[in-house]
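Researcher: Next entry: Meiosis specific with OB-fold (Cyclopterus lumpus).
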Amino acid sequence: SHSWDREAIQLVQTMIPKETVLFIADAKISFDSFRDGMTATVNSKTIITVNPDTREASLLFSYAKEVSESGALDQDEKPEDVPVDSITDVYTVSQLKQKAQENPEAFFGITYSFMSRLDIDSSVSKVIKTRCSRCKFLVTEDAQSCTNMLCSGRDQALLATTGFDLPVDITDHTGTLHACSLRSPVAENILGCTTNEFTSLNDNERTAMKWKFLLERCKIYVKITPSTKLRSGTRGVVLACSVADPGEVKQHMSALLQRL
Ligand SMILES: [Zn+2]
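Model: Predicted structure:
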């Protein structure tokens, strides 16, 4: 092959996925029916700059990182979600993690565990978030237009969605699943209030709401998606959560122990 081919391949091999911004000048952009998407082909005229020191590159990098870590884009996967009633498989936290390692597809399960982190008593901006409906970028509630320079609707009036969006940790005797997403509309059902009602609660009321869950073993329905983007290797989304019936917990715990 050509020397520029070899150079490009060597360059690409040194890049860390999701950590590199490329500025590519003079590449051939075409539709690739095999990959079902647009692809860029380099040739001898192509100039590739890795992590260019420009404002656009740094914005693009922080945008991609924020969106991919928040899981905001995963919300669009909803159609494949199943009704909570149809989820019956019970797991311990370590079994959920193990299954995610062995199996690249998303799965659903129930875990009888504790919410060991539920920061609903921190600042409201960490609990309720407003995102641009077009690109999912975080925006302030009073913004007139999307602040993401790369948003397709940047020149138009902001079209935004506001909802609960916070990370929760789920713990049982086998371990902890960190930073599972708790979002609207599931969060409204669990917390028993709307975002507007939540905003009007005082600190004591929010702390009381938090401890209602922290001290109790809960029946938590989760969707687990193995994710190479995250250090933990898994992304968890809470689909439902209620304080567990003690009799039900006992029955499932003895069943889980017998399987060991
Ligand atoms: Zn946007």
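Model: Note for the record: Residues 55-70 form the longest helix (16 residues).
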